[in-house]
Specification:
By secondary structure, the chain is an alpha/beta fold. It has one domain (2-204): Aldolase class I (TIM Barrel). It is 29% helix and 21% strand. It contains 7 helices and 10 strands. The strands form 2 sheets. The protein has an 8-stranded parallel beta barrel. It has a two-stranded antiparallel ribbon with strand order 9-10. Helix 5 (112-119) links the parallel strand 5 (101-107) and strand 6 (125-129). The radius of gyration is 16 Å and the shape is globular.
Amino acid sequence: MYLKFCGFTQEADIQEAVQHNIQAVGFITYPKSARYVDLAQLQKLSAHVPETIDRVAVTVNATMAQLEAIIEQTAINTIQFHGTESIDMIATVKARHPDMQLFKAIPADEKLQDNIRQYKGVVDRLLIDTPSSAFGGTGEVFDWRVLDGLSTSNYLVAGGVNSENVRQLVQNHPNIAGIDIASGIEKAKGQKDYDKMAYIAKVLKGE
């Protein structure tokens, strides 16, 4: 199962995270986020992630120029679109950078099935997140029952997953492709809790 730890702002936290069985490390490039890192920080921090682990830049309605800067100037190999980006815009990024992985976050709302159908052929992976006008980061879960009967299983579950509920999620929904966690592995905004990271990684390994 694909495990993405997200919202890193400190080098020491990255060094700890990559010791665990994780598939991705994420960085928030949205200025309104409490876990925001600018291009210079992203350049420095992403270089500390081994190439065997995906380096994900989480973007919210970024311009093409901003995306190009991230792709060309950092060690990022994955762009995660977390705003209201159009399919055409995402397809343009894919055409220009065919080796770049693309993820798209979509809210678990009444349009979920429609959004899955629209985006799943354009991106490498979908994330299903708690609906929020702030584009994620709420630390709140959505009703996981909406995951039952979806037309795809190639998605990560985000939004409020933590050390207290992660086992329930993976036991009740074994067909999901993975999980994406930011606030659920923190002791404070942008500061990671090493015990929580270790525990969640163990659960995802089936321990």
